[in-house]
Design a protein that fits this description.
The chain is of the alpha/beta class and 252 residues long. It is 22% helix and 22% strand.
């Protein structure tokens, strides 16, 4: 049976990012219909041009049986990501990074293994004061009005009902259950208010996010991931009818 796994930030393999990916690749017997989703701060597309490290990692991903999908976080080279051409993937628009690596875009809905998945990357960097523009920090990290408008239109098409929501940061009502509100600059992020608006007006079964470098199950719906890699155990709803069946199911 096809499976979907999900984890948090990988930061281009920095520190625990490499360990968790390579241990995961050894843990299961995968099929071509299995997916690993990274909930932002993918970070493997980092330099202005492809370098040795990027090539080695993309080769590694391409040599796995599973396909790696990721949303963007705040620590990404948005100039590079935005340079990729748009393609269709499972009913939504995406960037094909390599044979087995696909960037899931903001405000899109994908139908993967019978589950409807809404994605919205983005967050604000609290450490950008010590980063360098277009070297270690890039504009484009925050959710734009255009992306919000697209999200609402996509959600309207499915009557505001999805199975899974994947974001980088989380709704405002959730964040205080993840971090100490008295000691974190990550609270000063308007993107959490944007996600709160979405959360209040849509129906979903599970919501996964990264960003906070914690592994924490908030309640039956919300899960924050970092080092852990979780298998999504949701079954397709009995009434599930593909909404985007006329679009290609795989990327070319």
């Amino acid at each position: 049976m096809a499976r979907i796994f999900i984890t948090g930030d990988t930061h281009g393999g920095y520190k625990s990012g490499e360990t968790k990916l390579k241990e995961f690749a050894k843990r299961y017997r995968f099929s071509k219909n299995d997916y690993l989703i990274i909930a932002g701060d993918f970070g493997f597309i980092w330099e202005d041009e492809t370098d040795k490290k990027e090539k080695e990692w993309l080769d590694w991903f391409d040599n796995q049986k599973f396909t790696t999908l990721f949303i963007d976080g705040n620590h990404e080279n948005f100039n590079r990501l935005d340079s990729y051409k748009f393609s269709y993937f499972c009913g939504g628009m995406a960037h094909k990074i390599s044979k087995k690596v696909i960037h899931l875009l903001r405000g899109e809905i994908y139908e993967i293994n019978g589950l409807r998945i809404f994605t919205m990357g983005g967050a604000l960097s609290v450490d950008k004061y010590r980063r360098t523009l277009n070297v270690s920090w890039w504009k484009g990290e925050g959710i734009t009005q255009e992306q919000i408008s697209k999200a609402w239109e996509k959600l309207r098409q499915v009557d505001y009902k999805v199975d899974i929501v994947i974001t980088h940061t989380c709704p405002r009502s959730v964040v205080k259950k993840v971090i100490n509100p008295r000691s974190s600059g990550k609270l000063e992020d308007i993107n959490m208010d944007i996600l709160q608006g979405l959360c209040d007006n849509m129906k979903f079964r599970k919501w996964y996010f990264g960003h906070f470098h914690k592994n924490r199950k908030i309640n039956s719906k919300f899960t924050c991931l970092y080092d852990d890699i979780e298998k999504i155990n949701l079954k397709p709803r009995a009434d599930f009818v593909p909404k985007f069946a006329n679009l290609p199911r795989s990327i070319t």
